[in-house]
Design brief:
Blueprint (H helix, E strand, L loop, with lengths): L11 E2 L3 E4 L6 H8 L16 H14 L2 E6 L5 E8 L14 E8 L8 H15 L5 E7 L3 H9 L3 E10 L4 E11 L5
Parallel strand pairs: 5-6
Antiparallel strand pairs: 1-2, 2-3, 3-4, 4-5, 6-8, 7-8
Helix pairs in contact: 1-2
Length: 187
């Protein structure tokens, strides 16, 4: 079952990252990573060609209150986002009993291959199951997105099914893989 959440006041650190609410000051850094072709397309949205597109995106996720800005601890600079949205599992009878959200993420290409997204996702899993008291998390990736697949598998998600997803922004339908991670029973 979908549940309302608000992470706009949350701030936590992992070994190398700060996860916090996005802010208008993140605009330049947001555009720097969101304008690189191939980064956002892996998440289902078109890369930004104009600063105004990043500004609108940033405003949308600030107002949504369900997205973390991923920032480097050293610089405080935004390098990606990791957010919650309604889950595909809400439509599946077997998972209907769980308080569940889906996570989606995007990271600056400059920071790929360093284990940072795995670190961020693990932090958000702990936050979601501990602070938000969610019972399950889901995520998905396009079939060709091996980087996201590796993050998802390293973070303990279990493959459920392959399906198709239509990206309105990209105007394409692609095969995707859906995963779930159910919170372990608390004693």
């Amino acid at each position: 079952m979908d549940v309302p959440i608000d992470v706009s006041q949350a701030v936590f650190r992992t070994e190398r990252l700060i996860l916090r609410a996005p802010k208008p000051d993140d605009l330049t850094a947001c555009f720097a990573y969101a304008s690189v072709p191939g980064v956002s397309e892996m998440a289902g949205w078109k890369h930004h060609e104009l600063l105004a597109e990043s500004e609108a995106y940033l405003q949308r996720i600030i107002e949504n209150k369900q997205v973390f800005a991923i920032a480097c601890q050293e610089s405080g600079k935004l390098i990606g986002t990791l957010g919650f949205r309604p889950s595909w599992a809400n439509e599946e009878k077997i998972y209907a009993k769980y308080k569940v959200k889906e996570i989606g993420f995007s990271l600056s290409k400059v920071y790929w291959g360093r284990g940072l997204m795995t670190e961020a996702v693990r932090g958000v899993i702990d936050y979601a199951f501990g602070t938000l008291d969610l019972e399950a998390l889901t995520c998905c990736h396009y079939l060709q997105n091996d980087r996201s697949r590796r993050v998802i598998e390293k973070c303990g998600f279990q493959f459920v099914k392959q399906s198709t997803h239509t990206s309105v922004q990209l105007q394409i339908t692609q095969k995707d893989r859906k995963y779930i991670r159910i919170r372990e029973t608390r004693v």
